[in-house]
Amino acid sequence: RDQWKALKSQYKDEIQEVESLITVFKEKVDEVLARKEALCQLLHTLEQKKEECKEKQRIKAGKQQKARERAERVCARVQELEAALERGRHGLQLSGQRVSELQAQLSGAQQSLDTWSRAHSRLQLELQRLDGLSGVRVLSVRERELHVELNPRLLCPSLDLLPLSLSLRWTSDDLFTLQEDLEEQPVFHTPGRPLQDARSALLEVMQLYVEQGSLLAEIQRLHSRFAIDWRPAERKLVFLKTASIVCTLSVEEGYPTSGRVQLVSVQGGAQSLNIAGLQPPLGKPSLTEWLEFLTCCPD
Question: Which partner for 240 in 59, 139, 227, 261 could form a disulfide, CB atoms 3.0-4.6 Å apart?
Answer without folding.
Answer: 227
